[in-house]
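dude i think i finally got it to work??
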Amino acid sequence: MSPAVPPECAGIANEIASLEQEGKEIQQELAGASPSLKPFLQRELRRVKREMGLREQDLHGCLQQHPPLPRPDLLAKAVQLRVNHATRTFDVTAVARNIGPGIARGPFRIDFAVSMYQGNDLANTRVRVFEVPASVTLFGEPIATPADATSMSFVAPIPQREYVTERWEIPLFYRDEAPSHTYEFEFLVDAEQVVAETNESNNRFFVRWWTTTPAALQRDEPFVIESTGGTIS
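look at this
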């Protein structure tokens, strides 16, 4: 059943799927059937196609009475960093936001990878899988005009539209030390594609990042950074 089919029409959609499967099986039998059996199988195939046509008409009518609910659109929005120079670590989180009109509900996965480079060489990659629990509901973006907003006589609670993963502690190495270190952050929202979305192309986030020692801010001489592009500080 397509995830866009509302529950009221699910039974009809399931019948159509069963008839499609039955038709495929008959066609397979027909390909290797004896001449005496082929007329029977051809009649059965015509019967299945007629029934499918009728059920598709029923589904069309049901969808007109019960339009599918709007779908969400999960965006891999950002990473949040909190650097602790004293402990030589930093915490990183991934932020996902629902920018579609529909509601997104857990559970679904966020796969997060942090890669560390020494110079141009990959030193290691750490991977964590964060499970967005079933208790989480990410509401869609509101559709309202300025007149709607000014006519409200009360302050409604702000619905949750973003999900932030647990903080993940990573060892901190600096760009201006030897060997020089840089990082890459990449995460994928709804990694198993269990949420039916309007757009699946914005579920991936990628960025390069580095930072320098606190002492680098007090240096008189310039600090030269050679970058291949795409690096932010």
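Residues 38-65 form the longest helix (28 residues).
im so relieved honestly
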